[in-house]
Amino acid sequence: MVCLGNICRSPLAEGILAAKLPKNKFTVDSAGTGSWHIGHSPDERSIAVAKKNKISISNQKGRQFTTTDFDAFDYIYVMDNSNYEDVIQLAKNQQQKEKVQLILNELFPNEKVDVPDPYFGLPNGFEIVYNMLDEVCEIIAKKIIAKHT
Known about the structure:
Low-confidence stretches: none
Number of helices: 6
CATH topology: Rossmann fold
Mean pLDDT: 97
Structural class: mainly alpha
Number of strands: 4
Strand order of the largest sheet: 1-2
Radius of gyration: 14 Å
Largest sheet: 2 strands, parallel
Order of helices and strands: EHEHHEHHEH
CATH superfamily: Response regulator
Distance between the termini: 21 Å
CATH class: Alpha Beta
């Protein structure tokens, strides 16, 4: 799961998807395309909305997406078109590029819909983003479980 700073959207997506997959069979992680929040905890508002929904993300630490992530992960979901372009630019070949998908394309195929960044948004923005990610992660979890079990 990849967003800009790895403190709002991608930590939520990591926590939500991890909660929907068998922990002994799958690894879910998140990263940011930027380096500003390396080593930092997720935004307190992301932690709060996750906790409200019985998911703990408070132990996550921000990290920056690197080219080694293409080898480490089978699926790379990005939160918006800007993150998509940033990650695609790091890909060394077509196989790596094919791992990268806009997360909301699972709900809205080929519409290139962004998950809005709630950082500077409305007071209920984190709740809205949580609900979007919860819905799409349910679809992703079902697909991954069906394909790999």
